[in-house]
Amino acid sequence: MQLLIPDNLSPLAQRVLAALVLAPPVLLALYLGSPYSDLLIFAAAGISAWEWARLCGGGSLQLTGMAVIASVLLAVLSAAFGSYEIAAWVVVVGAMAVAVIAANHQQESVSWYVGGVLYLSWSCIAFIWLRQNETLGVIGIFWLLLVVWGTDIGAYFAGRSLGGPKLAPRFSPNKTWSGLAGGAATAALVGLVAAIWMPVMPMLLLAIGSAMIAVVAQIGDLFESSLKRQFDAKDSSNLIPGHGGLLDRIDGVLAASLAVAAIAWLAGV
Length: 269
Fold this sequence. Notes:
Elements: H1 11-32, H2 36-56, H3 62-80, H4 84-104, H5 110-132, H6 137-162, E1 166-168, E2 172-176, H7 177-194, H8 203-230, H9 246-266
Antiparallel strand pairs: 1-2
């Protein structure tokens, strides 16, 4: 399974073309809201859980991997219907069930399997909650996506042009501190522009918050890199040419969604 992109293009050209193909339907679904946004997130959760399970299973799903996918999908489906309490219980029970199945099959990756249920479920539930939030809604979601995308673009070009000390060579040898700084600066700029459409927050505060979310997104990227390093994989799959798998594309969004939802919930938004 792979998005059809010409193989004779450079990796950067493949990344740009894949983004141009995928971004419009994704943004349209998020703009329209339920049920389109829910279907989009449900599909993304299923693909991400499939990639995570295959990584943990050395390229095959196995029973434990199928339990991971089922748990994540059921939790996301519950949240899509507004049953967040049920979704929380599904995450807990699903994680316990996956742990038991993995242990019974004497698999060494029990913690990673369970971590997949917890991390993917809560991240996707957070994203659904943010889209359904009356205060944030579509504007908040677009801001979050633009911050993460801006972080990726800023980090890529700053890292390549400036170089310098490595950020976390153990997990991702190509990432640099200059890339992190460039990503945060780009995200702050996105925050300044977004303040025009998000008057509920002061411009400076939104710029600082955007830079902080950029750091969280980079942590999410490193976390997914550590998963791949753990199982000696270059990409989570070959679904998107130039990007790898869906997890490789949305790793920052997953982490940022958790952080933004937690802040919004604590702030009573």
